[in-house]
Write a structure and sequence with these properties.
This protein has 119 residues and is α+β, with helices and mostly antiparallel strands. The chain has one domain: GIY-YIG endonuclease (3-Layer(aba) Sandwich). Helix content is 42%, strand content 18%. It has five helices and three strands. The chain has helices spanning 24-33, 57-68, 72-79, 90-100, 109-117; strands at 3-9, 16-21, 47-54. A hairpin with a 6-residue loop joins strand 1 (3-9) and strand 2. The longest helix is centred in the middle third of the chain and has 12 residues, at 57-68. Keywords: Endonuclease, Hydrolase, Nuclease. InterPro entries: GIY-YIG_endonuc_sf. This is Putative endonuclease.
Length: 119
């Protein structure tokens, strides 16, 4: 099962929080529903600035432990090459997940076959 290591920050980039999860979109949704769980309202963690996808749970746990020991400067050094403007990566993830799901209005193949054979 795939795991994700992520770094999330607030709008002022004051706090950098490292996390580990199996469903990144669900975790980010949790952060938006519970904005003051870890910090006060001025420091809401709501901006995903970095993530890694790791294939095995053991590798993910080792990587998480390693990245968690990083200083702020080391975390910034990790983020800047892949996200130099510190934009919120959640928007891209939401678009990608919507592309993967099947549209509800699209007819199924079996319904089309029935329509064609009924003539």
């Amino acid at each position: 099962m795939k795991r994700f290591i992520y770094i999330i920050t607030d709008r002022n980039r004051k706090n950098l929080h490292v996390g580990l999860c199996s469903d990144l979109l669900k975790t980010l949704n949790f952060y938006t529903q519970m904005p003051t769980l870890f910090f006060d309202s001025a420091q809401q963690l709501n901006r995903l600035v970095y993530f890694e996808e790791i294939n095995t749970e053991e590798q993910a746990m080792e990587r998480f432990k390693y990245v968690s020991t990083f200083t702020r400067a080391q975390k910034e050094k990790m983020i800047r090459p892949v996200n130099p403007d510190w934009v919120d990566l959640t928007i891209g993830l939401n678009i990608e997940s919507n592309l993967r799901t099947r549209p509800h209005m699209r007819p199924s193949v079996s319904a089309l076959r029935k329509a064609v054979t009924s003539f």
